[in-house]
Amino acid sequence: MEAVVDAYDSSERAMGWYYYLDGKMKVPFTARCRFARPISVLKVKEVVEVLGMAPEEECESEMFVWVGRAGEHVAVPLAQLQPLSKDQETQEAVGDWLYWVDRGYEL
User: Fold this and answer.
1) Residues near 27 by beta carbon (within 8 Å), at least 6 away in sequence
2) For residue 56, what is the DSSP state?
């Protein structure tokens, strides 16, 4: 709840999550795709390098991150990814987001 403690609407929740994740994730780090999504190019079990948060305006309804894939940078939903990083803060931040999303909470 640290990310959304003072948020009163969906826009404030989105920015709370955005800055929480941006501040805690230590990039770059590797991650594995947990599941396929029609809006994403990632395949299940594919390993990618997370380069950072996508622009704020892309994260108003869901958190997206830049990943390196086939020599390009593409934005994908963070909820698709399981971090392989050993950094505790990165594990915690992404874990918090996955908990939020997996419980069905929305921005």
Assistant:
1) 50, 51, 52
2) G
Going by C-alpha positions, the residue among 32, 62, 73, 66 that lies closest to residue 50 is 66
Tokens of 43: 């395949």
Tokens of 40: 């994403």
Read off the pLDDT of residues 41-92 as tens digits, 9 standing for 90 and up. 999 999 999 999 999 999 999 999 999 988 999 999 999 999 999 999 999 9
pTM of the model: 0.92
**54 vs 76: CA distance, rounded Å:** 8
Residue 11 CA to residue 40 CA, distance in Å, equals 23
Amino acid at 30: T
